[in-house]
């Protein structure tokens, strides 16, 4: 009988998840597949029959239905990597091999045939999606990212993935911005003259920890079109800036509204995903029944 042990962040604390890894280290000779992410640790091992409940759980994990954010894509690559590493180290049983192959195929079908992974759901992803929706040319547009923090670093990562070329990281202390900008081959400058900064800007993304607004109407040059995404709380950009002609202003509430709409869309696709999962689960169980019957007849 193939067995599994599932430890996740919903039901187990960090110490319990760490203990499973420690226990596994003592028994490295046992053929197994270890799926370890920041939120879950799952161990699959054994030979023979794969329980229906275990197969269904793995199919749901591969489809993104057990993730903290429904439909997230990273789990697909994590499952594939865990399976490949296990294949390289061990001679896995036929059942274990097949259930992972079916799980990966199921996850691919769910993301191809439903909209469960569509739409950005993190602040950083939504911010970059807003730029795309405004037809910003990532190759030529002058983009300023103001502030040094995890949120802005994620934005820089997404901008880099979009092959944005003309990006400048802005911070009151330039030396703090230099290593962050350098990670992506971008420039870093000190936040000095706001007027000069904005005269050379097509897109402004700001997320600082300032306790008050930084940018006011007077800082924006007349006759310019600038897309402004203010992700700070409290806000970096005075709300009156949105009244200026040519200025398109999004604040944190606007970004969260878009994210929530996308999350709602993903949840509405769960029913379609379940149908696909049970179709593939039925195929897998038929394969398993046929395989076990052949084994029994051989014996």
Written as H for each helix and E for each strand, in order along the chain, the element string is EHEEHHHHEHEHEHEEEHH
Report Rg: 25 Å
- Count of spatially separate domains: 2
Instruction: State the shape.
Output: elongated
If strands are numbered along the chain, what order do they take across the biggest sheet? 6-5-4-7-8-9
CATH class placement of the largest domain:
Alpha Beta
Q: Report the β-strand fraction as a percent range.
A: 5-15%
**Name given to the CATH homologous superfamily of the largest domain:** Glutamyl-tRNA reductase, N-terminal domain
Whole-Å distance between the termini? Answer: 17 Å
By helix and strand content, what is the structural category?
Answer: alpha/beta
Second rung of CATH, namely the architecture of the largest domain = 2-Layer Sandwich
Number of strands: 9
- Average of per-residue pLDDT values: 91
* Low-confidence blocks of residues: none
**How many strands, which pairing sense, and closed or not: the largest β-sheet?**
6 strands, parallel
